[in-house]
Amino acid sequence: MSDEMDLVGLVVRLYPTPEQEEIIKQNIGNARFVWNNLLDAQNQMEALFQGTQYIPYPNYITFNRYLNIMKETYSFLEESESSSLQQVCRDLGKAYRKNRKEKRVGKPKYKSKKNPKDACRIQQNNNNIKIHKNTVKIPTIDEKIHYRTSKEYKKLLKENKINHVTLKYHNGIYSASFNTKIHKDIYKKTNEHVGIDLGMKTLATLSTGLKIANVDLTYVESMIKKYQKQMSRREPGSNRYYKSQKRYWNWVNTKNNKIKDAYHKFTHFLVKKYDLICMEDLNIEGMRKNGKLSTKLQRIAWGKILRLIKDKCRRHGKALQQVGRFFPSSQICHKCGYRYTNLKIGQEKWNCPNCHTVNDRDINAAINILNEGERLFNQL
Ligand SMILES: [Zn+2]
Fold first, then answer.
1. Is 372 left (phi over 0), alpha (psi -120 to 50) or beta?
2. Rounded to two decimals, what is the model's pTM?
3. How far is the CA of 174 from the centre of ligand 1 (A)?
4. Does residue 7 contact residue 174 with C-beta atoms inside 8 Å?
5. For residue 89, which of 115, 72, 103, 71 has the smallest C-alpha distance?
6. In this structure, are 240 and 172 located in the same domain?
7. Which of 148, 183, 218 is the last residue of a domain?
8. Number of folded domains in the chain?
9. Are 74 and 199 part of one and the same domain?
């Protein structure tokens, strides 16, 4: 255990009563309403004063001023926790700042109810956020909202100071993310390196020969399809429709959780066990443009894994080395360096004409990625 601290969001699932549900929805809705209206006000000012010096600077101070005027017109905003609306002003200011700093980040956009990131954030103030054994207290929502989470999270939530809480409603599920500082638990150095070949049939093959299978989603996907069909047969808005929609959402959530869980386990294993992780440069941007749906989905999966590895490497002081995607990792014999250009798509094994090694396509590629990754890493 080190003394370094890490900011994390501990997400727990909430089980609100119908009354509490209404208040949470109102708070999230108000945050969205304020965001969209602030954006509107700023756009109007920009259009009105185009080319002059009178355009209000899009930052927290400006937006807070707009907010105070809005509050006079829209009395329902008083029902929101006030820090959550100020947070919107801060977030929007930040979004504009990001747009100025990085050209590829677009201007802030209007928010829709359907956006899974739709949320509201409430600040800790004089202990107004409290965590008990089975309930949490969140200002303006209620004193006692039921929640469930792991023992580990409960312990962390009890022991550490909560900075703020973010409430979310997505796919029929209410959740709260408690922002807190916890001790960084850094993985030890192992002096081990690994190369990873990402594939279609198997998710990943390691240079050690270990193959990681794709998450088996056959059953979950069949259930999703089943309830999707059921929904399409039922009258939208009816009780029966609502019932199948609930089941459908549950299965969608199960699927997402299964994937998330598998990726976290895999990347956790990698970063814990290896100090240097070498993998192909995925060029996600270029990949989006072409390919079949299955290929596209697999690439999205790789992108997620890559992000998790990057994140965990940074957190634990380990290294990720990417290898150029034009590096012919599957064609080179890792034993003698002979380049075998006759390798066919889908061919799983090949015999090296030079040294007669029988190469497993994926393991051979992973070893080559490791060697090339080490070479590039040592050049730095
Ligand atoms: Zn060879």
1. alpha
2. 0.65
3. 57
4. no
5. 71
6. no
7. 183
8. 2
9. no
Sheet strand arrangement including 211-213: 211-213, 202-206, 193-198, 276-280, 319-323
What's the CA-to-centroid distance between 249 and ligand 1, angstroms? Answer: 52
Measured in Å, residue 43 CA sits from the centre of ligand 1 at: 64
* CA 274 to ligand 1 centroid distance, Å: 27
Q: Are 307 and 232 found together in one domain?
A: yes
Structural domain harbouring 193: 188-380
Question: Residue 227's domain is classified under what CATH number?
Answer: 3.30.420
pLDDT at 2: 45
pLDDT in tens, 46-79: 999 988 888 889 999 999 999 999 999 999 999 8
- What are the tokens at 86? 């100020």
Ion ligand 1: residues, CB within 5 A, are 333, 335-336, 338, 352, 354-355, 357
Please tell me what DSSP assigns to residue 259.
Answer: H
Going by pLDDT thresholds of 50, 70 and 90, the confidence category of residue 287 is: low
For residues 174 and 140, membership in a common domain is answered with yes
Identify whether residues 176 and 228 lie together within a single domain: no
Q: 356 C-alpha to center of ligand 1: Å?
A: 6
pLDDT in tens, 223-270: 999 999 999 999 998 999 999 999 999 999 999 999 999 999 999 999
Alpha carbons 208 and 4: distance in angstroms, whole number: 33
Domain final position from 160, 183, 206:
183
Do 144 and 213 sit in the same domain of this protein? no
Cα 369 to averaged position of ligand 1 atoms, centre (Å)? 16
| Residues 315 and 236 occupy one common structural domain | yes
Q: What is the largest CA-CA distance in the chain?
A: 82
Q: Are 348 and 199 in contact (CB under 8 A)?
A: no
Strands 319-323 and 276-280: what pairing? parallel
pLDDT digit string, tens, across residues 96-128: 999 988 877 888 999 988 877 789 999 998 888
Both 258 and 323 in one domain: the answer is yes
